[in-house]
Amino acid sequence: MTGVILRLSDASYRWPGRATFSLFVPELIVSKGESVLLLGESGSGKSTLLSLICGTILPDQGIVTVAGADITRLSGGARDRFRAEQIGVIFQQFNLLPFATVADNIMLPLQFAPERRKRVADAAAEAARLCTALGLPDHVSRTKAGALSVGQQQRVAVARALIGQPPLIIADEPTSALDANSQTAFLDLLFAQTAAHETSLLMVSHDPRLGERFDRVIRMEHIAQIGRAAK
Ligand code: ADP
Ligand code: MG
Known about the structure:
With about 230 residues, the protein is of the alpha/beta class. It has helices spanning about 45-55, 75-85, 100-110, 115-120, 125-135, 150-160, 180-195, 220-225; strands spanning about 5-15, 20-30, 35-40, 60-65, 70, 85-90, 170, 200-205, 215-220, 225-230. The protein starts with a strand and ends with a strand. The structure holds adenosine-5'-diphosphate (ADP) and magnesium ion (MG).
């Protein structure tokens, strides 16, 4: 096994029908177990880059390798399964299913990821363990996710990303809606869980103050050529 979890090489992308924005990443490498903070102003293509890494969009040219596999060579369905196996995703708005219980939200990725499922002997017990580890009270696992506070929802989003130990966690501005204390608590939880399993973490933010917590800080304008032609 190599020491690299993620590699983009000469990857370019334009949103279909949008001539004004273009992204080109000559090279981006994240090592196994490494935590990386990706900084960049709004509209610089951070979320677009994360979508390329997750394989929800494909580069027009270049390669995106996750855990040794070039995801641009996978068919759509295989790419969806591969993402579910390899990547835990924490979305900006958490994207929980509001009418499903907390436990069902946390266990959801396992439905699409048999290898990840195999690492979990008892999914419900593991969901409960993660809730406890993340400071959520026991009874919360049977609550509907839509009834939770924002602070609780973010913990559930972390648990859903971590269950079954995917080797890579991707987080898109997960702390942007939180005050400073909640941000610190969020990162404490995330780092405690990723450190335990040599999980790699790529987190996007526009807040440079978070940088000291990470192994490495990179800026969009340093790793990418960003085209933003005037209309
Ligand atoms: P950031 O996350 O750094 O704020 P984004 O990747 O969201 O930046 O956006 C970069 C550019 O891509 C913007 O011009 C934005 O309008 C465009 N863009 C983002 N998502 C889409 C989409 N789904 N369809 C079309 N254009 C998009
Ligand atoms: Mg964004």
